[in-house]
Design brief:
By secondary structure, this protein is an alpha/beta fold. About 40% of the residues lie in helices and about 15% in strands. Helix 1 runs antiparallel to helix 4 and helix 2 packs across helix 3.
């Protein structure tokens, strides 16, 4: 018999009720063996749920006997469990607790923040406030204390999903370099100027427009541009606009780009070469292995932030550049746990400050 401590279930109590209330009762040790508990547990449970049962013996007399009720025992146990333990921290100080709950609800439901980002925002308010850990806040949300459904969270509960290995021996179909030849300093994220690039599609078969997304690996700064069509010509056109806007500072800010094997990135030469001086090799491209989005992990994570505002299946043809710029600013002003709750914009400004471009105003205009 396993005597390890576990709480009695309602089914366990019904078993006790059946065996104890028989005319010829089972012994306590037999009941304990039937439910896999210690006999002391059974004794305590019977005391919790016993009552005096009155029944007729004949037409003129009645008899009272002690019986056990599973429903009564279970109700008593739940009531005791509810009374036990210290009250939740957010309920100890009523006004502060109500303010905390309302702020968390607003930041997650209205401003689309994660629980961690909501806590970081609350901590920056500079007042005597309640603070809880991220794990505790998630527990409050799952128990319904905050009043937020799990569907409002950026990510649901993680599952142990199994992934299959991909074939990394396939050749790179475009003239760029393989990610295997990418310098080690890019992987370490210690040097500014190495980016990841991807596109975000609109409603399949409907949207002609799509989004070109660039994520800087060190700062996680995001650039989002609206493509007129999901083609390589549109990608080259947007990259040329970016070079013209940044001028001589382009090669200091864009040292390499890691991208996937989509057809929109087929014109590697067009992306790599400068539109100002066609003889100049502007940037290095490194293509990921087929079906390996994890090799552009920062890019994929930022795409999930975009999807908080533009869900899959949205028609991009009605979107304007101002709409996309609003999403870009929201992402870059989003407090990041990996940056100790600084924003990507804060980190980018620190990286641009020592570069001292002659056209710094134009450079800053591109990133705001």
């Amino acid at each position: 018999m396993d005597t390890k401590y576990t709480k009695l279930t309602h089914d366990d109590r019904r078993t006790i009720e059946r065996m104890y209330n028989l005319k010829k009762r089972f012994r306590i040790s037999e009941i304990a063996a039937a439910i896999g508990k210690h006999r002391s547990t059974v004794y305590r449970e019977i005391e919790r749920g016993k009552y005096q049962h009155k029944h007729s013996v004949n037409d003129w007399s009645s008899k009272t006997e002690t019986r056990y009720s599973a429903d009564k025992g279970h109700a008593q146990a739940l009531a005791k469990r509810k009374r036990d333990g210290r009250p939740l921290k957010i309920f100890l100080a009523k006004d502060k607790g109500e303010w905390f709950i309302s702020m968390v609800r607003e930041k997650i439901k209205k401003d689309k923040h994660s629980p961690a980002a909501a806590l970081a925002f609350i901590a920056r308010q500079g007042r005597d406030i309640i603070t809880v850990s991220i794990k505790t806040l998630y527990r409050y949300i799952y128990k319904g204390i905050i009043g937020i459904k799990e569907s409002c969270l950026p990510h649901g509960r993680y599952s142990n999903k199994k992934y299959t290995d991909v074939d990394r021996k396939k050749s790179i179909p475009y003239p760029g370099k393989s990610i295997e030849k990418r310098p080690p300093e890019v992987l370490k994220r210690e040097e500014f100027g190495h980016w990841e690039m991807d596109t975000v599609m609109g409603k399949l078969g409907i949207s002609k427009h799509s989004l070109l997304v660039l994520t800087e690996r060190k700062t996680r700064f995001e650039l989002i541009m609206l493509l007129s069509s999901h083609t390589s010509d549109s990608v080259v056109k947007e990259m040329n606009k970016l070079e013209n806007a940044l001028g001589s500072g382009f090669h200091s800010i864009f040292k390499s780009i890691t991208l996937d094997n989509g057809t929109e990135f087929a014109d590697a030469e067009g992306i790599m070469k400068s539109c100002i001086d066609s003889s100049y090799r502007l940037i290095n491209l490194y293509y990921c292995h087929p079906r390996s989005p994890g090799e552009r992990g920062s890019n994929e994570n930022c795409n999930r932030l975009i999807r908080r505002h533009i869900p899959k299946g949205t028609d991009f043809d009605g979107k304007k550049p101002e709409d996309i710029n609003t999403i870009q600013n929201w992402i870059n002003e989003y407090a990041r746990k990996l940056h100790n709750y600084e924003t990507a914009s804060d980190r980018l400004k620190k990286e641009l400050a020592p570069l001292r471009f002659s056209n710094m105003k134009n450079v800053l205009a591109v990133f705001t």
